[in-house]
Amino acid sequence: MKPVRPPYAARRTATLVGLVAGFAVVLIRLLNLQVLQAAELTQRADRQHWKSVSLEGPRGTIYDRNGKVLAINVEVPSAFGVPAALEDLRGAARRLAPVLNVRQMELEKKLRQDRSFVWLARKLDPEQGRRLKALSLEGVGVVMEGRRFYPKGPLLSHVLGFAGMDGEGLEGIERRYDRYLHGDKQVMMLERDALGRTVFPRGLREQGPDGGRHVVLTIDEVVQYIAEKELEEAVTSTRAKGGTAIVMDPHSGAVLGMAVNPRFDPNIVKSLTPDRWRNRAIADVFEPGSTMKMFIAAAALEEQLITPTTMLYGENGHMTVANTVIHDHEKMGWMSFSEVIQKSSNIGAAKVAMRLGERRTYDYLRRFGFGERTDVDLPGEVAGLLKSPREWGRRTLASMAMGQEIGVTGLQMASAVSAIANGGVLMKPYVVAEVRDAKGRVLAEMGPQQRRQVISQETARTLSEMLEKVVANGTGTKAAVSGIRVAGKTGTAQKIDPRTGAYSSTLVVGSFVGFLPADDPKIVIAVMVDEPQVDAWGGAVAAPAFRRIAEQVLPYLGVTPNSAVNLAMAVE
Amino acid sequence: MRPLLILGVLLFLLGYVWERVDVVRVGYRVEQLKGQKVLLERERDELSVKLASLSAPDRVARLAKEKLGMMPAQPGQVVVVYRAEPKPQPEHPSVQEVRVAKREVR
After folding, report:
1. For A29-42, what is each residue's pLDDT tens digit?
2. ipTM of the modeled complex
3. Is residue B28 within 8 angstroms of chain A, CB to CB?
4. What's the rounded Cα separation, in Å, for the pair A31 and A35?
């Protein structure tokens, strides 16, 4: 008997096989997804769900000594393009060009690049950002970036320096203190929903990266403004090539003002050459001329080789040294050492240097800080030029006494004169007073630092009295300030003519360096005017600028002239 | 017993889901406030820049001269008058110090 097959048996079998096969396929797929490709797919899911964002805290602010903002970061828009998302590339470039102030051709070139992201223009004005957003162009976007801004324009530009497009310090304080100023970098994980919106940072305690630390300078913006204004006046009125002016506290070495002319605006450095932003007060060396006589005098007084009343013969204005002739600007006979300084006699100074001898002259000049960096906290400082006595010629000693064959920076000169003003101590000059965190807590404090005692207090006092006579009756009368005792020295140094290689009779550096009040010095001022075309004498070009700076800075600092009267007397 | 257990589990699940939803809701709110904070900080910085630019010494000096007709006091025009005598000149001027123009003293 033929077995009877149950009805639909074949169908049941087929269904069963189909189901088993189907489940097997699903199982194999599941195995493939969950086991074999598990790692890669988990990663892909995480990438879609979690977004990592690299963030950098804003750069710290630079303040003057009174908390006035000198450099600050602001968020400004930057425009980018996604070339693949642009349909009408030429049309987009045409519409973007007037908003971004970039030529249409240039924009087209950028947008034709085979890249997924291109910068179109960075660090724009907020208004440009608003106009760009109003265009609503597909494939063009705006992101906010930190831009360094110097709200005072050219004020203090040579000291502040500037930061680059990516926020890195490139010059000046911005460069020297970049490790404090730049913000911290941090990668944050953000959870995104299906629409790509940020849901929540992973972990509630996660904060954004810390901003940079703030730097507080010793510079006072008002003193700086006065120094820059008066230096500009001196340079313009004498049709000079440029100049520098430094205002310092002689007791601490704190720099209150450091002006360099010509100035530049650190907000627009793109079109300028490095020559324009070089801080000439620390990076340029010049022969100081007669201001060097102060230090020869200090050495001779300290060594007790001479007193202010010691008489010296002026050789009627001509003296032969090593087959060359040293001149004075007027014929002088017998004169006291005090008069040598007062009238700035080259012959008298050379004779004193000869008494000192090469070794001692060199040692004292080194002790005053010449030929070595002052170690001011600014980049680009040079050591100047002070040759070892082994390299000196037969005339070098006499030349040095009148400030030739030696190269100094403006800051070295101000620092050395500070040592005379403060009783003989060479201080380390500095421009940064404090570094603070975002909450204003002081992280580092830079106080005064003594380098060495150069001369005794008594020598400093004697020399100070001699220098007062320079201003009262000597070559520096134009530096006199009414009601205030001023001590200082003029200097007129011939420059080497690059065409002839010899000292030029027309190219000079006119300078005046001094301190006041002489009996209780509060500030040292050094003014150097480079290549003045009119009245090319230190006493004529630099001394008036010194006076004008002093007349404005002293009252501002609360130093009043001796003519102050008592109320009781005034009432009478 | 069993219905209570099922109810408890359901309540727990409900509470868990509600808590998750609330966390996400608060998250969106926090993000919104963060955005607001960024905008306010940006505005503060822009105002700081504006203040610093407007108070620049050369601008103040120019306005004082051109708009208000002011000029720096010349040497001798300022006489400092002290209250007591003899009194050493203070290092920093005290609040009692009075400054009078020379002409007014006459």
Report:
1. 999 988 888 888 88
2. 0.70
3. yes
4. 5
